[in-house]
TrEMBL record:
Keyword Secreted assigned: no
Subcellular location: Cytoplasm
Binding positions for ATP per the UniProt entry: 203-210
Location, primary (coarse class): cytoplasm
Protein name (database record): Myosin VIIB
Superkingdom field: Eukaryota
UniProt-annotated stretches for the region Actin-binding: 686-708
Species the sequence originates in: Pleuronectes platessa (European plaice)
CDD domains: MYSc_Myo7
GO cellular component, one term: myosin complex
Length: 1375
């Protein structure tokens, strides 16, 4: 663990050095932006000395509490300089006030964990450090080996078992400050060095002393190992609730205030296992039993007793509620919010069982407590008899109950309370007491009972938790002592108890100072450092005043207590006479004053002398002891055993029980006569305690309370400042500063200041760390007495000294600017260790003003400047000189590093650019050569391609001519066999469609009939040519009749247009549509003769890396890893999964039709094309069975008729596909499959109707249709097939929309369409998404327009004006 901590420190140090260099580089960058020559030299001087405060800087300002507080300089938007203190208050910063400010040391800005490291070793620095850590929620702080614990008044989860494991085995200072760290140091030193340890916990009431003792005890019990056979750890822990119940009470400042001093000594075996413990108590506050201040309560046990007893037990003891008893209602406070009295009583009862208190003992304790409460309600009636004041006990139930509980006769008890007997030379004389004296006698009896019962409980606990070793006089165990004792007290009214408490604190303070001084001695002796010049003063003069010199204060009090006629006034007069000239004693100002003062180490305390002697005598009358002797109460006899010894009671035998038990292993006091007074008892116990502490290695915990209101996150500066002075923290710092307070190990010093080492004087590779440290100090620090080399450390003296090199290093320009108030300070290069007042103030003080106006005046002597800086507290210590020089050297090195880094950066940039240029040249030459090769190859390929296209065109025209002739002949033969009636009906239907389409007038009927006949002849020729072409290439027929439109002009190919047709991949026939009112013509391809597939370059527009590409969709949704690219085979299963089997079969049928539509597979062959066409035409015309849509795609005729009626059949033009009559049955319809109906040559329009029909009737296969079309467009090398596919896709986009699953992918796909299809299809997709699906099938005109990607121009208004219509309009009005 230690090695890991060291490695972590080394890493942190290295990171810090790197960060520091980078910081300097950034500072230098900012500095380089300033272009003034005069400021350049000034910055060098500024590295050495700082100037007036700047915005954002922290300073010390005066306050009302007597110590400075922190404040930060702020500049308002108006430019006014302000001071914002720690409380948020703003003050205007005037130039006069600025001159008196002192800049705050950086360690005081953020706070430190160990206050020894503070640069501001003042009351203000210590106080602000505690304030900062308290605001950060950190309540433990070190001052060397002393732990300062601030009570948070709030529970925090920092005392768990995990925290115990964390601090176990760690040295003090390796982890953040914590009370467990102190406990671990005690435990480690005891087990490692086999030496007794002690921890002295002090502080004011409410500061957390008792809780700190519990936490240390908890830690020791957790790490001590296995439990002993008697479960001693549990017994020790269970003693706490008993002692708290009988010794703690609620005060104004603390709900659980310890009203006694406690020294808990825990014994361990050599293995570190707890073997026992012993508790010793000091100076229990007995007066609280009878009197409490307002807002305070009696001891906890009384309230627990009244709350926890059962009704039957309370009836036996004749107890009621707390308000009924005078001893409990004087403070007018009966409850405590932080305590549960009933639960505490159960816990006390359980703890007493664990500590082997018997049931009888428990009941007897109840009886004595109840007797005390009843005695408090006993009253006395005063009377006068024989000119003497007498008193009698008032008759009441409380008195008889109290006598019954004490097991004495009521008359005997009444006599002892109202009379006092004393022994004369010959006989015993009894004197009656007044009612007031009787009350005092009763109170003394009650206090004696409670005090002696508390002592007996402590001894009972000790008898269980500690067994004295029988192996020898000395204990075989080692111990850790926990001293929980009252802190220094200074109230408005201080009495005899405060004098004893402050006397104990004076002894502990002397022990504390001697220990700190001893630690310093041990440190110097261990490092072989001579320090004879070190001197310090302690509080011995105060101890001499109290107990040291003859006629000391406590001796005078004891002397006056032994005189029968001694009084508080005679005691005060003697003290004033004896010590009036003593500086530490403050005598009364007049003979009527009753108070006196003592100059304690923490300040002057004034004591009220009234009641001193009564409290010091601590006497119980002979009559009371006689009454106790007659009692049959066993516990009462036990606690007064000392007074009842020797078979009788003597009048002068008023000895008290000595606090140190007889079985103590400490050094026993002298066997002289025991002092009967309370101060004598306390002094004797305190001497025994100090001897025990001197034999141990001590640790100190100073407990502070941040406020008197017991509120969390509230810090009272004045209260904490007083506690700081009482705790003696400044003595630790003062003693350290007298010697060499700045200490570094050789390795740390070299690592920190290695930049100052001159390699010419000392080779770092060959010399030791000590030699390198010596070389650094000789080079930068003047005077060998300012630093010392030890065995493992280097010691630096904290002196205000300025080396000659510091000032001689400044050139004339810099020094002149320094002394003449040059206001060009650069905060970027500020060194936070050396401070300087404003330059104008410096110049004025050094030269009394002349230099302020005369820049050319000579500079003052160097020693004068140095002396001035020392007197003004500008310089702090030798480590500040080292830090300043280190910063200068680091600045120089940072410049070098910056220069090298910038050069390296520019060099890398140049090399990178040169390599890039070479690569570009090489690639360009290679590209140019490759391009030339491609041009030559392209020209050859272009020539071959032109020739090939010319041959293909000739072949196509020849085949088209032959096909037209054949089809025309077949149609002529078929037409002759048609009945005249059918021909008339067909002519009328075709004529009506043309009239609606062209919106022509009725006067042109004859001309339209002639045009209709011409168009019919042209279409017949086209169909014949198509059938001929398909018969030659695919052996199939296109049986779709042409729409009845007028042929305006038949395009012919002339010789001058031959070159134009050579570039066309797909030769088509164009038909012009002439509309009335317009001379323009609209052409659209009707049919494309089949040509051999032309292999071309890949037209891959589907980006596979795109989020919404078809490739990404195929991975996510296609079945069986089906590819998203073009294929010529039929699928065995659909691309997308379908739950309906009918949908799956429909998808396979649609795929078959799409392959045929795009020409990827040939049309089905027919044995006799001519007879097949003839029979089909003959069957189609009379019966129209071949034209039924249900025979193609299986549409429900009822749904079609319903849609027809909904859209308006009257306004709908006749379709080129004749509707079947309503009486036609559906039995022979083929819904899905590839029966004879589809396994025949189909026209493009029929194929389109099949595909669209499936999409309109089966919504679930729409995405499948779009995916099939898109799949056939990806990586399709046949241009003709691609164009047909895009035509099919554009028509579908105008009829039915895709689902939300595929819409984003389809948008991305069509946006990359070739030859204008991208924008065309995107526009149609947006329109169909906005308008919804169509209800009608597409017509031939739509197919023709889709191939040319143009809008159809037709006449649809009564005025004859042409309008453009979309496919949706064509469906409704033109079909």
């Amino acid at each position: 663990m230690a090695k890991s901590v060291q490695s972590q420190r080394a890493i942190k140090s290295a990171v810090g050095e790197i960060w520091f260099l980078l910081l300097h580089i950034e500072r230098l960058k900012k500095t380089s932006e300033k272009n003034t020559d005069s400021s350049a030299g000034w910055k060098i001087g500024h590295c050495a000395l700082s100037t007036a405060v700047i915005s954002g800087e922290w300073v010390w300002v005066d306050s009302d509490i007597g110590v400075p507080i922190g404040a930060r300089v702020k500049v308002s938007p108006s430019g006014q300089r302000l001071l914002v203190d720690d409380e948020g208050n703003e003050q205007i910063l005037s130039p006069e006030r600025e001159a008196s400010l002192k800049i705050m040391h950086p360690t005081s800005v953020e706070g430190v964990g160990d206050m020894i490291k503070l640069g501001d070793m003042t009351d203000a620095g210590l106080l602000r450090n505690l304030l900062l850590r308290h605001r950060q929620g950190i309540f433990y702080t070190y001052t060397g080996s002393v732990l300062v614990a601030v009570n948070p008044y709030q529970d925090f989860p920092i005392y768990s078992a995990e925290q115990v494991k964390l601090y176990h085995g760690q040295k003090l200072g390796e982890l953040p400050p914590h009370i467990f760290a102190i406990a671990e140091s005690c435990y480690f030193n005891m087990t490692r060095h086999l030496r007794n340890q002690c921890c002295i916990i002090s502080g004011e009431s409410g500061a957390g002393k008792t809780e700190s003792t519990k936490l240390i005890l908890q830690y020791l019990a957790a790490v001590s190992g296995e439990l002993s056979e008697q479960s001693i750890e549990q017994q020790i822990l269970e003693s706490n609730p008993i002692l708290e119940a009988f010794g703690n009470a609620k005060t104004i400042h603390n709900d659980n205030s310890s009203r006694f001093g406690k020294y808990l000594e825990i014994f361990f075996s050599e293995d570190g296992v707890i073997k026992g413990a012993r508790v010793e108590q000091y100076l229990l506050e007995k007066s609280r039993v009878c009197h409490q201040a307002r807002g305070e309560r009696n001891y906890h046990i009384f309230y627990c007793l009244l709350t926890g007893l059962t009704a039957e037990e309370k009836k036996t003891l004749k107890l009621g509620v707390a308000k009924e008893y005078k001893f409990l209602n004087k403070g007018d406070c009966f409850t405590c919010a932080s305590r549960d009295e009933a639960n505490d009583y159960s816990r006390i009862h359980s703890a007493m069982k664990i500590l082997t208190f018997s049931k009888n003992q428990f009941e007897e304790i109840h009886k004595l407590l109840a007797a005390i409460l009843h005695l408090g309600n006993v009253g006395f009636e005063g009377a006068t008899q024989n000119n003497l004041e007498t008193s009698d006990v008032t008759k009441s139930e409380n008195f008889s109950v109290a006598a019954s509980l004490l097991e004495v006769q009521p008359s005997s008890l009444a006599e002892s309370l109202t009379h006092r007997s004393f022994m004369t030379n010959r006989e015993r004389v009894t004197k009656p007491l007044s009612s007031e004296q009787a009350e005092h006698c009763r109170d003394a009896f009650v206090k004696a009972i409670y005090n002696k019962m508390f002592i007996w409980i402590v001894e009972k606990i000790n008898s269980v938790t500690y067994k004295k070793s029988t192996s020898g006089a000395d204990s075989p165990y080692h111990s850790i002592g926990l001293l929980d004792i009252f802190g220094f007290e200074n109230f408005k009214t201080n009495s005899f108890e405060q004098l004893c408490i402050n006397f104990a604190n004076e002894k502990l303070q002397q022990f504390f100072v001697a220990h700190i001084f001893k630690l310093e001695q041990e440190e110097y002796l261990k490092e072989d450092i001579v320090w004879n010049k070190m001197k310090f003063s302690d509080n011995q003069n105060i101890l001499d005043l109290l107990v040291g010199k003859p006629c000391n204060l406590l001796a005078l009090i004891d002397e006056e207590s032994n005189f029968p006629k001694g009084s508080d006034s005679t005691m005060l007069n003697k003290m004033n006479q004896q010590h009036k000239g003593n500086k530490t004693y403050v005598a009364t100002k007049s003979e009527y004053d009753t108070n006196f003062g003592i100059q304690h180490f923490a300040g002057v305390v004034y004591y009220e002398s009234e009641g001193f002697l009564e409290k010091n005598r601590d006497a119980v009358s002979f009559d009371i002891i006689k009454t106790v002797e007659m009692s049959t109460n066993k516990l009462l006899h036990k606690i007064f055993a000392t007074e009842l010894s020797n078979n009788g009671v003597k009048t002068t035998n008023n000895k008290r029980v000595v606090i140190t038990p007889g079985n103590s292993v400490r050094t026993q006091p002298d066997k002289r006569k025991q002092v009967p007074t309370l101060s004598g008892q306390f002094r004797q116990s305190l001497d025994s305690l100090m001897k025990a502490l001197s034999a141990c290695q001590p640790f100190f915990i100073r407990c502070f309370k941040p406020n008197n209101s017991k509120k969390s996150k509230m810090f009272d500066r004045e209260l904490c400042m007083r506690q700081l002075r009482y705790s003696g923290m400044k003595d630790t710092i003062r003693i350290r500063n007298l010697g060499y307070p700045i200490r570094h190990t050789f390795e740390e010093f070299v690592k920190r200041y290695r930049v100052l080492l001159k390699t010419a004087a000392c080779d770092p590779k060959n010399e030791t760390a000590a030699a390198r440290c010596e070389a650094i100090c000789k080079a930068v620090i003047v005077g060998e007495d300012k630093w010392k080399l030890g065995r493992t450390k280097i010691f630096l003296k904290k002196t205000e000294n300025l080396t000659h090199k510091m000032l001689t290093g400044l050139d004339t320009h810099v020094a002149t600017g320094l002394l003449h108030g040059l206001e060009q300070w650069d905060p970027v290069l500020w060194v936070p260790f050396i401070y300087l007042p404003p330059p104008s103030t410096l110049a004025r003080d050094l030269n009394n003003g002349p230099l302020a106006n005369d820049v050319s005046a000579p500079l003052p002597p160097l020693h004068q400047v140095e002396s001035y800086l020392i007197n003004k507290d500008v310089l702090d210590a030798d480590d500040a000189i080292l830090e300043r020089l280190r910063e200068q050297e680091l600045s120089r090195i940072a410049l070098i590093i910056q220069r090298v880094m910038l050069g390296q950066k520019d060099r890398k940039s140049f090399l990178k650019k040169r390599r890039a240029a070479v690569v570009l040249q090489k690639r360009w030459r290679a590209y140019r050569e490759e391009k030339e090769k491609r041009v030559r190859g392209f020209q050859k390929r272009k020539s071959w391609k032109q020739k090939r296209e010319a041959v293909i065109l000739l072949q196509a025209q020849t085949r088209k001519l032959l096909a037209r002739r054949t089809v025309q002949k077949m149609r002529d033969d078929a037409s002759s066999r048609l009945e005249k009636e059918n021909l008339d009906q067909l002519a009328i239907a075709l004529q009506q469609g043309l009239e609606d389409l062209a919106s022509a007038t009725r006067s042109a009927d004859e001309e339209l009939e002639q045009e209709l006949k011409s168009e019919s002849e042209s279409e017949s020729a086209t169909e014949t040519e198509s059938v001929t072409e398909q018969g030659s290439e695919a052996n199939s027929y296109d049986l779709q009749p042409a729409p009845a439109v007028e042929v305006v002009q038949q395009k012919t190919f002339e010789s001058d247009e031959f070159e134009k047709w050579r570039t066309i991949q797909e030769p088509v026939e164009e038909t012009s549509f002439k509309t009335p009112g317009s001379d323009s013509k609209s052409t659209a391809p009707l049919s494309a003769p089949a040509t051999p597939p032309v292999e071309e370059e890949d037209d891959d527009f589907d980006d596979e890396s795109d989020e919404f590409s078809l490739f990404r969709f195929s991975i996510l949704h296609f079945q069986s890893n089906i590819s998203h690219t073009h294929i010529n085979q039929r699928l065995k299963q659909p691309l997308l999964p379908h739950d309906d089997e009918g949908d799956a079969l429909a998808c396979l049928t649609v795929w078959w039709i799409i392959l045929r539509f795009m020409g990827d597979i040939p049309e089905p062959k027919s044995q006799d094309a001519t007879s097949q066409v003839s029979s089909t035409l003959m069957d189609r015309l009379p019966q129209r069975q071949g034209r039924r849509l249900s025979s193609l795609v299986g549409l429900d005729q009822k749904i079609l008729r319903k849609n027809k009626k909904k859209l308006g059949a009257a306004s709908r033009r006749a379709s080129t596909i004749l509707e079947e009559p309503e009486n036609v049955t559906e039995d022979g319809d083929i819904l899905i499959g590839e029966g004879p109906t589809l396994d025949r040559p189909l026209s493009p329009l029929e194929k389109l109707h099949i595909i669209v029909g499936y999409a309109l009737t089966r919504r679930d296969i729409r995405d499948e249709i779009y995916c099939q079309i898109c799949k056939q467009l990806v990586l399709n090398n046949n241009r003709k097939s691609r164009m047909l596919g895009w035509t099919l896709l554009s028509i579908c986009l105008g009829i039915f929309p895709p689902t939300d699953l595929f819409v984003k992918f389809l948008k991305k796909f069509v946006s990359r369409g070739p030859d204008g299809y991208g924008a065309y299809c995107t526009e149609r997709l947006h329109r169909i998404l906005a308008n919804g699906e169509r209800k009608e099938l597409p017509c031939l005109i739509e197919l023709q327009v889709a191939k040319s990607k143009e809008a159809l121009r037709c006449v649809c208004d009564s005025n004859g004006r042409p309008q453009y219509q979309c496919s949706y309009g064509i469906s409704l009005h033109l079909c």
